[in-house]
Specification:
mainly alpha, two-stranded parallel ribbon, single chain, about 35% helix, 2 helices, 2 strands
Length: about 55
């Protein structure tokens, strides 16, 4: 089974450009994933800390 790093590397070498929408919180990350993107970009904070905007 391929590692996460190997799968991510393969996305960069596919036949189409890799588009990484940026998620700012857990809700937007879920929406990006549900939209079918193979990977999600995140900022260091707040997404990585698990906080949501407005809280």
């Amino acid at each position: 089974m391929a590692s996460t790093a190997e799968l991510f590397r393969a996305l960069h070498h596919g036949g189409t450009p890799l588009v990484l929408p940026n998620a700012w919180d857990p809700v937007s990350a879920r929406l990006v994933a549900e939209a079918g993107f193979p990977a999600v970009a995140t900022s260091r904070s707040p997404a990585s800390s698990g906080t949501t905007t407005g809280s």
